[in-house]
Structures are given as structure tokens and as C-alpha cells.
Design goal:
Layout (H helix, E strand, L loop, with lengths): L1 E4 H5 L7 H7 L2 E5 L5 H10 L6 E5 L7 H9 L10 H10 L10 H7 L3
Parallel strand pairs: 1-2, 2-3
Amino acid sequence: MFLIGADQFADFPTWKDPEGVLALARIGVATRPGFPRERLDAVLQQLSRPDRVELFEIEPVPISSRDIRDRVSRGESIDGLVPEAVVELIESLGLYQNGGYTSAVLETELKPH
């Protein structure tokens, strides 16, 4: 299962090949109290396989994944905001650095050979 937050799922129709993503994985969408359910329902109505999406509520966290990415891209610490294993993975792959949201490792792998 591919887990994402409600804010990311609200943008799911704009992703590259969202139906292809659904063909490869079920999507678990973590919702927060106060996030407009209507936005999620609107996305579900656009999908050919809404049964591949499962919504579940989580306890509110005072920071979003977007905030984490922005902090890393600005060179700010995320210690204490995410588990240490996540910090280590972001650092080892160079994720979200230099003002971007992709890693140098991924960019290299995606370039034509």
C-alpha cells in the first residue's frame, strides 16, 4: 500500500498517470480532522478504481510533509519532527535538497542512457 496525506491525495489527478499508480498499488490516504472531505470525494469520483483507495483518520501532527520538504530544501533541521530513520534516509539519498524535491540519485537514474 502506498500511503499519502489527504493534501497530496487532493492533487492526485494532477500526478503523472494516476490511473497507472492505482494499477500498481492501493493507496492509503491519511486524513486529518478539519480537512475538507468534499475535496477527497471529488477526487474519488474522478477515478476509475476508487475501490483501490482507502481513507483513514490520523491524529493531528503539527507539521505537514510539505513543511518537511521545504525545511530540508532550505537546509533547516528536521530533527524531532520525523523519526530518526526518516532523517537518515532523506540525508543518505539527498532528498529535497538544493531547493528541489527530487534527489540527485533519482535524477541520475531517470536520465536517458
